[in-house]
Amino acid sequence: MKILVLEDNKRLSSVIKNALKQESYVVDCFYDGDEALDALSNGYSCFILDINVPNLDGISILEYIRIHHLNVPVIIISSNHDLEKVQKAYEVGCNDYLKKPFYIFELIQKVKKLCILPKMFLEFDENCKYNFINHRLLKNEIECELTKKEILFLELFSKNLHHVTTYEEIEEYVWEGEETTLVNIRSMIKRLRKKLPENSIIIIKGMGYSLCKSVSFS
Predict the structure, then answer these.
(1) How far is CA 97 from the centre of its chain?
(2) ∠ CA(149), CA(23), CA(39), 5° rounding?
(3) pLDDT tens, 161-206?
(4) Domains in the chain and their CATH numbers?
(5) Contact present, 88 and 58 (Cβ < 8 Å)
(6) What contacts 170, CB < 8 A, 6 or more positions away?
(7) Which of 75, 88, 137, 209 could be joined to 144 by an S-S link, Cβ 3.0–4.6 Å?
(8) Nearest to 115 by CA among 159, 67, 65, 153
């Protein structure tokens, strides 16, 4: 899962990033509110926002998130202990609020609570499983190397196993908001299919892709 961290204290930002990476999250850090705003559509599963950052503050970004990304968890972190700021954050729709200084362990536990994977494994058949925690694909007990884009594609199914992932959703999440082509998407799917049991990925004509009904969480 991908997490956006907006924190202008670079030392604290680095500590947060390293702690989250140890828990197998993919983390993008920003030190400026405008830069973070430009990146919001890159398919994040959680936002960690400081209130007082250059240019655009965390509360304003939270307001934007609640308009365009309604259900994505948001944790506000701030050294501002002003009750009005805390109330404003909750009124706009933050899921949790941490006052600085805080224990990094406490932040990690809040992230885990808000970003729960339904199961650990995506099971394609009895001999092939993808592990959501360590991002590894095992086939006949042998690890198959996956690219970052292949991992992100599989993670699209982490919350809704048999939904149809549209081309737009793949571009936003797998290509992290960068424009791509159908040719590039199809090439990535073709390479991934070779690593999975036959017919694991189903083409939904004119829409995108889904997983075979036999694929399950375990």
Answers:
(1) 20
(2) 50
(3) 888 999 988 988 888 778 899 999 999 999 999 999 999 999 999 8
(4) 2-114 (3.40.50.2300), 121-217 (1.10.10.10)
(5) no
(6) 153, 156, 185, 208, 209
(7) 137
(8) 159
